[in-house]
Specification:
The chain is α/β, with parallel strands linked by helices. It is built from nine helices and 13 strands.
Amino acid sequence: MKYIQQSVLASLYRNSTHPVHEDYAELRLIRAACSGQADEACSLFREEKLFGHVPCVIDTPYARYEGLSGVRRFVEEWLPRFGATDAEVIPVIQTRANGRSVTELQVDFSSPEGIRQVPFFVVADLRTQDTLDEVRLYTHCSFIPGLQAYRAPLFPSTHLEKGECGLLTGAVREYYEGLHRSPCADVDRIMQCMSEKCVFGGYEPLVPGREPATTREEVREKYEHMALYIPRCVAMRYETLTDDGRTCVIEWVHVISRAGREERGRIAMSGIAAYERGDDGLLCSIRISDYAGLERTIDWSQLPVSKEEAEQVNFVEEYR
């Protein structure tokens, strides 16, 4: 069996501690897309969201689909976008709370060239327990053929501050207190939030230097590197929280300082992370999907926004 790209999400986390509900609407949506069932996908939405007189939405890293016609187009374009003739969905972890449902899954896209394994966060704003208002998909840009490493912020920030740690609880709150401590992240404090067997990773492409960290020493090395620029150069502002008491999924946007722009070429983008607590309350898994560090690879001529325009989004001179 030939693999064009491989994912470790399922092999790392699919087990009996992560039960799967096959009837969750966001999982049904992806299964419908993989089997070309546009009518099934449309049955999960209404033309407009429950409030606001605005169309239902599926937002992906490569396109935004609005209204039921958009849902149908999403299904029609799903397999061709990945150069696939068919696909298999492997659900891995689900988190449902706060009127939102998140399924982390892997899709194995099959083509004459081989199998492309792609890990996704599928985030659903629920209309009811069985229907959807909006769905947002996240995966690393390298898994999608021809995609530039830019995901414009999905949420307009009402103010440009780091995430408010008081919105979080337990180990997740302590983790962010350490991550956003000025002038640089407190790695010792971060590591105290983690269990001895905490695993970091699952959404990165399988290339040398980006393997999941499965030992305490490897995890610490990740955060020693992050402390070089967080939060002096870049901080995360939370936009949605989905926390079922075990796993906390955070959708966030960057806030970029002048140092981040000038020293590291950073640009504000949307991203997502899941922080899973073990039985002892400490973090046993950290899973992040973003395009961090790839800003200099962007070909701005291929995007509808200029680099100069993108640099102005969520920009501050320095953090308070």
